[in-house]
Design brief:
The chain is of the alpha+beta class. The chain has helices at about 15-20, 30-35, 65-75, 130-135, 175, 185-190, 205-215, 215-225, 230-235, 255-260, 275-285, 310-325, 415-425, 445-490, 505-540; strands spanning about 55, 60-65, 90, 95, 100-105, 115-120, 125-130, 155-160, 245-250, 270-275, 290-295, 300-305, 335, 340-345, 375-380, 390-395, 405-415, 440-445.
């Protein structure tokens, strides 16, 4: 025994002792390091949850849309590589509960990755093994528990055995090892989509790509053999640029063509075009214009003021629906005392209605507009940015709705009509027992028509001014061309003499001689004057004042 041999003993288990001598994690071995498990309800080819489940006699699950083309091309089991025919496949019936989870239809236990799952060959019904063992095997009555079809013990197919999961190991699948693939039409179509090669994208990017897909220029871009940034193509797709929709920034195509070889060369700076609604809404906001509408109901009239300067898109949707008589005949289908009364659905169910653009539009929640007080007008929706045509009036302050629903107006007349609506009794589904109908809608002030007329007048004046300038420029060009043609007609290409300068006219020679004679006279006069000055200076008194 060595000295102080027990000083190295610890009063606790070390990591090495726990790992080697007890139940600690032994590290990744070759067997479990390469194990990648496939869920039992996923197809062994596409690795996606099955929609039309089928299985082999071994209990390997496939989706019908994936396995049939595979068998036509290869004729083998994608997992084991053995020969397999389509007639050997067995239709499975997975049963789901109200939450959409696969469960046993007898015990109602949810089937998980640790459940023992079996299927009956004759019926295709899927059960937990516990139910089959207790009700069929132990009682020796081999009748299907749901359909009462008779079967044998060999007809029990094991879908999942928690103690034997080798058939779920993706690493051992033969079609992956041998790279057996199906290039079907759907796969080819998916590969043409740019999103096919993106591993993950944000919601904003997905929305942008979806918008690009639906643009009218998509078909042209796919068929074009030239650059996708062809200048001719972009010009045909864009609207007309004028002084009204001209932005203060450029399209950026000049800089892009300078730095990218995939674009056609662009040598001019092009102004970007602003969206038409952006121009209209900006003018309404700057002018702080309001809209005024009257709803005529069977209980009275309601006068509404709309905040078009704060919620321009929402107010335009409501005003145009009123102008088009969209709400006439519709009911206020929901009324909750001390809360709200809701309408605007032509179907009267609470699930109908559409916007003037035939699609939902975004929220315009403004901190200046809150659900404060009685008679506030707000948009009903089914979630963020899902506004259509339904709206509601508040019976009192509803702070819980702030930031979730767009407030875009208020009642400025006929508040007693709102009180009459609140007084009508409702059933257990908050539907008024007496119908509240919208009989007519009257628009008093529509700022959007005013702005549209404004923009139209501006464009007409601009077109007229451009036409006058073009006419004036055409007159100037015509005059210049007339003068040029006259000059060309008087000039001839006939030679005036032989030798050098034979095409120079006699008139030019005459003018040149006159100029030469004048120059000689000037030279003679200058020489005489110099001689006279020299004589006077030599004969006179010397003068040194200029020294």
């Amino acid at each position: 025994m060595g000295k102080k041999q027990h000083q190295q003993d610890k009063l606790y288990l070390t990591t090495t002792e726990w790992k080697n001598s007890f139940g600690g994690f032994k590290g990744l071995t070759k067997s479990n390091a390469d194990f990648r498990r496939l869920p039992f309800n996923c197809c062994s080819i596409s690795f996606q949850p099955v929609e039309i489940p089928y299985c082999t006699p071994d209990g390997i699950v496939f989706d019908l849309e994936s396995v049939v083309p595979f068998l036509k091309k290869y004729g083998r089991n994608p997992v084991t590589g053995e020969k397999l025919e389509a007639k050997q496949l067995i239709k499975l019936n997975f049963h789901k509960n109200s939450r959409g989870e696969i469960h046993c239809p007898i015990t109602f236990k949810v089937l998980t990755e640790s459940s023992y799952i079996v299927a009956i060959r004759t019926s295709g019904n899927v059960y937990s093994y516990d139910a089959i063992e207790r009700l069929n095997i132990k009682t020796n009555t081999f009748n299907d528990l749901l359909t009462n079809e008779s079967f044998t013990r060999d007809d029990i197919i094991t879908i999942q055995d928690p103690k034997n999961l080798d058939k779920f190991n993706i690493q051992t699948f033969v079609h992956l090892k041998n790279d057996w693939k199906l290039d079907d039409d759907d796969e080819k179509a998916r590969r043409t989509d740019p999103n096919y090669y993106l591993k993950s994208i944000s919601n904003e990017t997905a929305a942008t790509l979806e918008q690009i897909k639906t643009t009218p220029s998509k078909e042209f871009l796919e068929k074009s053999d030239t650059s996708i940034y062809s200048s001719k193509q972009i010009k045909t797709n864009q609207q007309k640029l004028d002084h009204t929709n001209m932005a203060t920034y450029s399209t950026g195509r000049l800089a892009a063509s300078f730095t990218s070889t995939s674009m056609d060369p662009v040598t001019i700076m092009e102004a970007a075009i602003r969206d038409e609604n952006d121009i209209r809404y900006t003018r309404i906001k700057n002018a702080k214009k309001k809209g005024y509408v009257r709803l005529v109901t069977n209980l009275g009239v309601i006068n509404i003021e709309l905040d078009c300067d704060l919620c321009p898109q929402t107010c335009e949707n409501f005003i145009k629906h009123c102008a088009n008589k969209y709400y006439i005949g519709s009911k206020f289908h929901r009324s909750i005392k001390n809360f709200i009364v809701q309408g605007g659905d032509p179907t009267g169910t609470g699930y109908g209605g559409k916007s003037i653009w035939n699609k939902p539009f975004r929220d315009e929640c403004n901190p200046k507009l809150q659900h404060s007080g009685r008679g506030m007008l707000s948009m009903a929706n089914s979630g963020p940015n899902t506004n259509k045509s339904q709206f509601f009036f508040t019976y009192r302050t509803c702070k819980g709705l702030n930031g979730k629903h767009t407030v875009f107006g208020r009642i400025v007349g006929g508040i007693e009509t709102l009180s009459a609506m609140e007084a009508i009794p409702t059933d257990d589904k908050d539907r008024p027992q007496t119908d509240i109908l919208i009989e007519d809608t009257i628009v008093f002030v529509n700022p959007y028509d005013e702005v549209d007329a404004e923009l139209k007048a501006e464009r007409e004046r601009q077109d007229k001014r451009e036409a006058e300038e073009e006419k004036m420029n055409a007159t100037v060009r015509s005059a210049k061309s007339t003068k040029s043609s006259t000059t060309n007609d008087t000039s001839t290409n006939q030679p005036f003499r032989s030798g050098v300068g034979k095409y120079i006219s006699n008139e030019f020679y005459t003018n040149a001689k006159k100029a030469s004679a004048t120059t000689d006279e000037d030279n003679e006069y200058t020489q005489k004057k110099k001689r006279k000055l020299a004589a006077s200076s030599s004969s006179g008194t010397w003068n040194f004042s200029q020294w």
